[in-house]
Amino acid sequence: MADHSILDNKNHKDLKVITNFDGEFAEKNNSALIFPTEIKNAQRDYPILFIKNPETGQFQSVVLLGLVANENLYIKAGWQASYIPAMITKGPFTIGFEEQEVNGEKVKQPIIAIDLDNPRVNKMKGEAVFQKNGEASPYLQQVNQSLKALYDGSQLNQEMFDVFIKNELIEPVALNIELNNGDNISLEGNYTLNEEKLSKLSGDALNEMHTSGFLRIAYFITASLGNIQRLIDFKNNLKK
């Protein structure tokens, strides 16, 4: 169970975080959430699909990391991609909110919290969270960038999907894959963008998509599906 604690340089001055990816810390999930602020970088390495949040029914973007449950094909002597999703690089840290008084009014301000029960967190090995003078370490500065990408991206997420839904661009997609050894894998419950409808946008719809920046993101998403072959190649070469 997670034990989240607000991060500070006194109580957590000696904390370290193991950041490598190997057999022990393989992040064994076959997908990871991705946000609009990351899609430009992520589309070079991963297939980007949509899923529905089982609790809210709202769409979310994910990068596909494996073809079966609890599989991450991007880990082999480290992470095999030029970009690692912010949901991964943030490690055991998360954004919380604390009520503070600003100009006489109580407002919720974002703060950083750390999961002290995460197996990557310890006091013996890994990247230091704070420097000896109490300032944020280079590692923590990188984590801050990941958390910022997540926070900023979450603000854009619903707006992006509202535009996609308004223009009827989202459609279900079933992935049926045959491996070299004859195994068949079927991935269902995913969605993507209809490329034909996207290419036929015009008038106000096209202008809205363009000015919002979501047209560019939409084309990144459709282009990313070419990386499904990369996953298939990873899978075919697993035991070679």
TrEMBL record:
InterPro entries: SapC. This is SapC family protein.
